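Please check this chain.
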Amino acid sequence: MTGKKTSGTRQRECLHCGMSHNLSLPEIHDRNLHVLCIKCDSDLFMQTDGSTLSIDIAHHRETVKEAIQKFQNALNKAWQETYAAQLRLVVGGGQIRDAVLAELFFLKSKGVVREYSEENRGAVLVKIR
């Protein structure tokens, strides 16, 4: 993906055929709306390069509320702007971790995230594609 922004849309390239598309980017909560490549019919937002996007949401004096907002922003960014297969959240070992795990339980039950697991006490892996 080139990431060029053009009047409310962003360019996304199909990883299967290379066709470039100008799209309004859906949020991850709208993941059931399939956006297909006009050339090869591949789902553009289910394509992955296998990478992991990492973000620390707990070590800059964030409150729980701020950390959850950072998490939600990171989740949407990973969905809209990358081809990452998963998101690695550095959550620490306290209240932020507990709140993120509760939020992930809810998001998984709604089908927004595919899976999640604790990498260790301070980090969580979230499979989005």
Q: What stands out?
A: The two ends are 16 Å apart (CA to CA). The mean pLDDT is 91. The beta strands are 5-6, 9-13, 20-23, 52-56, 86-90, 115-120, 123-127. Helices lie at 64-81, 95-109.
